[in-house]
Amino acid sequence: MIASMAPTISDMWAGVSPSGKPSTRDSETPRISIAFWCSAARTSPLSVITTTTHSSGCLAIRPPHPMASSSMWGARISRFIALLGRGRPESRWGDASRWQDVPVPGPRVVLISMYVGHEGVPHAGGRYLLELQRLLDEETDLTMLSVGNNLNRGVLGEAGVPRRLLLLGHEAGRGPLGRVLNRLAVLADTTWRHRRDPGMASAAFVLGLLRSPEARAAVREADVIDLQYSESIRLVRLLRRLNPRARITGTFHDVMSQSFSREPGDPDFWRAVAQRSRRHEAAMVRRLDEVLVFSAKDGELLRVPDATRVDPPLATGLEERHAPAPAPTVLVVSYLARDENDKAARWTLDEVWPQVRARVPGARLRLVGGGALPALVDRADREPDVVLTGFVDDLDEEYAAASVALVPVLQGAGVKFKAIEALLHGVPLVSTTVGLEGIEGPDVTAGLADDPAGLADALVAVLSDPTSAQRRADAAQRWAVTRYGRETFADTIRRSWVTRSRAGA
């Protein structure tokens, strides 16, 4: 059943037919999606689109009513929805029955991401989302939609979470049919995504969106729909159908086709996945009003020469000059639950660190970040001069005590925030070429290499002459503070769509 349904969900939502050719039948997208769910459940169509009213600058939510469609199925679908026990999406909005019309302070923005930024988020993309959420909460009428998994449910009420956050999918349906659909959606997410299309949108999220009148109302009333990560951007065609007038922007945190092409195992499988991802990317960028990337390199990979480059706002404005640490300490910061980071850490322990240890007596390696797998924990425990800290609340202390920061990743795509953070803290940086991709500053590293011997040589050079390495790091810090400041970021976001939406873009 899953094998028959997943090509429809992963291809049709993105506007790519199962054959790989761009689909031109935009008007039939919702019908295709509904047919997918019907065939999977062997029953009648289930999902409907409801309407909202908007007047005098106020937003109001109305209950579902029959779909405005010339199709007989449109009316049947909307009537049938009453038979499905819809679970209530978890939300910070409170009881929708008690809502009242409220003035809209600025452009209505819907932010869609499968992750939610919050204070203490362990990965770099989440920290970017946190800054974006704060900006939008301050300057727009923001509604955020995300998938209702346990990870996101656990951050409700945390500092930095948007005032209006609606979690979709994974709700406990009150009827047997609803429970069947939930299980199918979760099974598609956990099984099909890994086996055929790792970049596909969350089936559970889409089912939740189609079943939630609150979420659909927010989408249909939005002036701007901002999609974060490729998984969310896959939904651009469906969202365009729900709200043809909205300005839709997409931020590619990574170019997934490049990331897939760098996977070392099963080359035939990953080559096919990368080719499929390129077709999806081409279809997505055609339907976006604006493409945002973290580097010019990613814009070139997407074949969007005029893509808007947005620099992540990692600088606080309180950066201090770094003083060389008295003890020779190498620092690796990463979210170790990610496969490419786990492999990089183990590669460092096996291939790079033994060479450094042999040449610099007393050197220490600190692996900082949450999510380490048991195999990595066991491997690090066998080394007396290696410390695996787990998640830490204050990275500033780690950088202050470091002699040099190492970014050893060989896979993945996109700008590595950990490299930018090292520059902002004024710590000498040694990196692979993948680790430095998209960072276009002049002479910002103390060493750049992709082989164990080259990385070890660069680390030993810094540890042997920290004063010279620090002078270069000071210059790199001054450049990074200007490039990755919060005002620069805010100005880019406002120019890219907030200001334009107010002008009627």
Give the topology:
Blueprint: H1 2-12, H2 29-41, E1 52-55, E2 58-61, H3 72-80, E3 90-91, E4 108-112, H4 124-139, E5 141-147, H5 150-153, E6 165-168, H6 176-195, H7 203-211, H8 213-221, E7 224-228, H9 229-233, H10 236-242, E8 247-252, H11 256-261, H12 267-287, E9 290-293, H13 296-301, E10 308-309, E11 329-333, H14 339-359, E12 364-368, H15 374-381, E13 386-390, H16 395-400, E14 404-407, H17 417-424, E15 429-431, E16 447-448, H18 452-464, H19 466-483, H20 486-502
Helix pairs in contact: 1-2, 1-6, 6-7, 14-18, 18-19
Could you explain the architecture of this structure?
The protein is of the alpha/beta class and 505 residues long. It has 2 domains: 2-89 and 102-309, Rossmann fold (3-Layer(aba) Sandwich); 329-484, Rossmann fold. The protein is built from 20 helices and 16 strands. The chain has helices spanning 2-12, 29-41, 72-80, 124-139, 150-153, 176-195, 203-211, 213-221, 229-233, 236-242, 256-261, 267-287, 296-301, 339-359, 374-381, 395-400, 417-424, 452-464, 466-483, 486-502; strands at residues 52-55, 58-61, 90-91, 108-112, 141-147, 165-168, 224-228, 247-252, 290-293, 308-309, 329-333, 364-368, 386-390, 404-407, 429-431, 447-448. The chain has an 8-stranded mixed sheet, with helices on both faces. α1 (2-12) runs antiparallel to α2 and α6 runs antiparallel to α7. The longest helix has 21 residues, at 267-287. The protein starts with a helix and ends with a helix. The relative contact order is 0.10.
